């Protein structure tokens, strides 16, 4: 059973991912050892309170939720309120959580849980990578302690979603992403190339909206906000639940298709800062960087049906 530490910026698709993880926990198919939040869609404290709210609604208690870094390593902070709402949850007005946030900071939590579970921890990251980058600086042995790092981020052949080439999670902290992709640990990267084709629409959204449970009603209302934000991009009624694909590939890698390539982050480009660059040449010149396993596609039906069943089953 995977032992997961979830690092996120909750966020609508992060919240959908929490619901998916909650269903795995209830089914005894995954352990969630902790959640850490980072700046990104919202500030990290709001993201942590959102996380607690969603976990409580899904009937999950006892998972420590740690607030993380509030600023990127080398640039000003930006939030994505236009995509996720001022509250990060599509302005759904969930009640304040009853539980407390952890006293530990998210990067320290990463180091503690990796040390307590050597070789076992899956780090699932669906926000900017500042907490992971900070944890690498806190403990240089971290790469030897973690089983796998699964990241939603980047764009290769697909256009960016913040600038022409840059995807949000990498663009929010390019220096941290470069640290994570350049470290000697097994990284699985789930970029826009893999997530965009999984956009949910029509029948999927109708089945969610027709289901009579508190969680389904919440998910459906939250996604309405996201659908409106996606209208100019998708040009149809739908939305991309990026982060849940990364979570599903962490648990069930067989539903993905991958290539293995060294990945770098552009840190200086005038128009391309925050862009992910892969080396697709058959013979890269003596690249000593460990290749990243990059998802380039997935079994879309399996992803959509599994996610819907998870949310309806809570
Ligand atoms: C990523 O950016 C965020 O807005 C989403 O939550 C997702 O993690 C997609 O680029
Ligand atoms: Ca996210």
Automatic annotation (TrEMBL):
Keywords: Glycosidase, Hydrolase. One of its GO terms (molecular function) is purine nucleosidase activity. Residues 4-304 form the Inosine/uridine-preferring nucleoside hydrolase domain. It comes from the Bacteria. InterPro entries: Inosine/uridine_hydrolase_dom, IUNH, Ribo_hydro-like. GO terms for biological process: purine nucleoside catabolic process. GO terms for cellular component: cytosol. This is Nucleoside hydrolase. It comes from Actinomadura barringtoniae. The lineage of its organism: Bacteria, Bacillati, Actinomycetota, Actinomycetes, Streptosporangiales.
């Amino acid at each position: 059973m995977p032992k997961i530490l979830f690092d996120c910026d909750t966020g609508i698709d992060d919240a959908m991912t929490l619901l998916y993880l909650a269903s795995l926990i209830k089914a005894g198919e995954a352990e969630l050892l902790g959640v850490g939040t980072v700046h990104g869609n919202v500030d990290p404290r709001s993201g942590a309170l959102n996380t607690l709210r969603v976990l409580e609604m899904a009937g999950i208690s006892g998972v420590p939720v740690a607030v993380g870094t509030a600023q990127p390593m080398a640039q000003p902070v930006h939030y994505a309120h236009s995509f996720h709402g001022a509250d990060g949850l599509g302005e759904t007005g969930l009640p304040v959580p009853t539980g407390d946030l952890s006293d530990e900071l998210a990067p320290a939590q990463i180091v503690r849980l990796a040390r307590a579970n050597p070789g076992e921890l899956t780090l699932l990251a669906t926000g900017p990578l500042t907490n992971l980058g900070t944890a690498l600086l806190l403990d240089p042995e971290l790469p030897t302690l973690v089983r796998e790092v699964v990241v939603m981020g980047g764009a290769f052949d697909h256009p960016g979603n913040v600038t022409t080439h840059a995807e949000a999670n990498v663009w929010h902290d390019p220096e941290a992403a470069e640290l994570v992709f350049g470290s000697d640990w097994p990284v699985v990267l789930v970029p826009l190339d893999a997530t965009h084709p999984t956009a949910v629409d029509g029948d999927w959204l109708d089945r969610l909206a027709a289901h009579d449970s508190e969680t389904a009603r919440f998910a459906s209302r939250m996604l309405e906000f996201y659908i409106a934000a996606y209208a100019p991009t998708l040009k149809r009624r739908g939305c991309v639940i990026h982060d849940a694909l990364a979570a599903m590939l962490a648990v069930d890698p067989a539903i993905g298709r991958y290539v293995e390539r060294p990945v770098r982050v552009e840190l200086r480009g005038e128009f391309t800062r925050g862009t992910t660059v892969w080396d697709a040449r058959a013979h890269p010149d003596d690249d000593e960087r460990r290749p990243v396993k990059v998802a380039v596609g997935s079994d879309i039906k399996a992803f959509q049906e599994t996610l819907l069943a998870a949310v309806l089953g809570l």
